[in-house]
Amino acid sequence: MENSRRISPEALTDFASDVTQSLGAAADRARTTAEVLAAADLRGISSHGVAGGTGLRELVDRTRLDAIDITALPEVKRKSGWAVAAMNANGGLGHPAAMEATQLAGDLAEEYGCGRVHVHDGNHFGAACVYVEALIARGFAARATCTAGAWMMPYGGSRVRLGTNPIAWGLPCGDEAIVIDIATTQRAVSPAIRATRSGAPIPPDYFKDKDGNVLEGVVPYESLIGGSVLPLGGETFGYKGSGLNILVELDNVIGGGSTERVKNMRETPKSRVSQTFEAWRIDFLFPEEEARRRLEETISDIRKYGGPEMLLPGEREARHMDDARASGIPYEEAQWEMLRGISKDTGIEVPASLSA
Fold first, then answer.
1. What is residue 355's predicted lDDT score, i.e. its pLDDT?
2. Backbone dihedral region for residue 204 (phi beyond 0: left; psi -120 to 50: alpha; all else: beta)
3. For a designed S-S bond to 17, which of 32, 34, 49, 81 qualifies (C-beta 3.0 to 4.6 A apart)?
4. For helices 128-136 and 94-112, what crossing angle results, to 10°?
5. For residue range 182-197, what is the model confidence (pLDDT) as tens digits?
6. Cα angle for residues 35, 28, 255 (degrees, 5° grid)
7. CA–CA gap between residue 275 and residue 128 (Å, rounded)
8. Which fold has domain 75-186+232-304?
9. pLDDT of residue 54
10. Architecture in CATH of 1-71+328-356
C-alpha cells in the first residue's frame, strides 16, 4: 500500500477498545468490538476496520446520537430440543452481540450436529468472514449473512429497496480455512463514496442514477447517493445477485428481521439490521480427520487447474494477515487522520506508527 505507515495490531486493538470503553461500554464488550474491527484491518478489509466507513468513527457518532445503546445486552430465546435460537440485540453494540451469537451457533452444532442463531434489532457487525473463521477454528463449516440499509434497486425495479446484504461462507480444508465474504451487490458502497469525494473515477457496471442510467468515470456525489448500486451480476445478469440478496433478507426475516425496507445511515443514524449465523459439523459421514483430508485433497486438485495468479476464496486476506502480523497493518494517511479525529473527540491517544 503506497504512502502508508504501519501500525501494530495490538496497539490498534487497544486504542479501539479504550475508545469504545470511554463511550460507556463494559470492558469485555469494548474489547470484543475492538478485536473484530482490528481483525478486518488484519485481513485488508479496511472498509470494515477501525478507521473504516463502518468502524470506530461511526460507533462514536451513533453512540453520541443515542442510535446505539452502548450498555444494552442481548437476550436469547431458545426452544428445548431445537438447534435454532433467536437473539434480540436490543440496539446494542453489534460486534459483541454477533460474536456471542456465533459462539452459540457453535455450541448448538456441538450438541445437535448443526446450529443456527438469528439476531434482530442489531447494529453493524463488521466483516462477516471474521465470524465464519471463528467457527472454522472450532472445526465447523460455517456461514453468516446480514441485512443492510437500502442502497439497491431490485433487478428490474425502479426504487432503492435492498441492502448490500453480505454473505460469508467457509470450510476447514486441512489446516487451511477457505472462506468467501461478498456483498450480493457488485461491490460494497463505501469505495464508490470515497471515489466521488476524492474526484476519482468509478468503474462501469457498478452504480446507476435514480433514472436508471449507468454511472461511470468521475461521478458527482449527489448523483451517487441518489442512485443505486447494481446487484451482483451487473446490468445483464443482476437477477442472480438480486435473487440471492432477497433470499438473504427473507432468511433473516424468519429470525425477527424487519419485513420493511431497512433505512440506511443517510436517512437515520438509528438503522437496525439482522444477522444469521450457522455452524455444522463436518464429521457426520467421515471422521473429522478424514473429512479435513478429503477437503484438502479437493483444494489441491483445484489448484492444479490454476496459474500463479489464481487465488482461492480468502487466500488474499490470509496473505495480508500474515504480512500484517509480521510487519504491522499498513494505514494510509486518511486512516491516520481518522484516528486523530477520534482521538481529539474522545481523549484517547493515537498509537505510534511502526514506521516513519
1. 63
2. beta
3. 34
4. 30
5. 999 999 898 898 889 8
6. 80
7. 10
8. Ribosomal Protein S8; Chain: A, domain 1 (3.30.1370)
9. 87
10. Orthogonal Bundle (1.10)
Q: Given this model, what pLDDT does residue 78 score?
A: 96
What is the Cβ-side half-sphere exposure of residue 149, based on CA atoms within 13 angstroms?
16
Q: 72: how many CB neighbours lie within 10 A of its CB?
A: 17
- What confidence category does residue 198 fall into, taking pLDDT thresholds of 50, 70 and 90? confident
One-character DSSP codes across 91-106: T--HHHHHHHHHHHHH
**For residue 164, what are the CA distances in angstroms to 71, 74, 295?**
28, 25, 30
Report in angstroms the alpha-carbon separations of 119 from 83, 149, 160, 174, 276. 15, 16, 24, 31, 6
Task: Report DSSP letters for 82-137, one per residue.
Answer: -SEEEEE-TT--HHHHHHHHHHHHHHHHHHHSEEEEEEEEE-----HHHHHHHHHT
The residue written with cell numbers 466521488 in the block is 196
Chain region(s) in the chain for CATH 1.10.1530.10: 1-71+328-356
Highest mean pLDDT among 6-15, 171-180, 307-316: 6-15
Gyration radius of the chain over CA positions: 20
The residues near 242 (Cβ < 8 Å, ≥ 6 apart) are 152, 154, 155, 156, 162, 184, 231, 232, 233
The answer on pLDDT for 147 being more than 60 is yes
pTM for the whole structure: 0.95
Look up residue 114 and give its three cell numbers: 448443526
Strand-pair category, 228-229 with 273-280: unpaired
Closest CA to 72 of 24, 119, 117, 135: 24
170 near 180, Cβ under 8 Å?
A: yes
The torsion region of residue 24 among left (phi > 0), alpha (psi -120 to 50) and beta comes to left
All CATH 3.30.1370.60 domain ranges in the chain, comma separated: 75-186+232-304
Q: And the C-alpha cell for 223?
A: 448523483
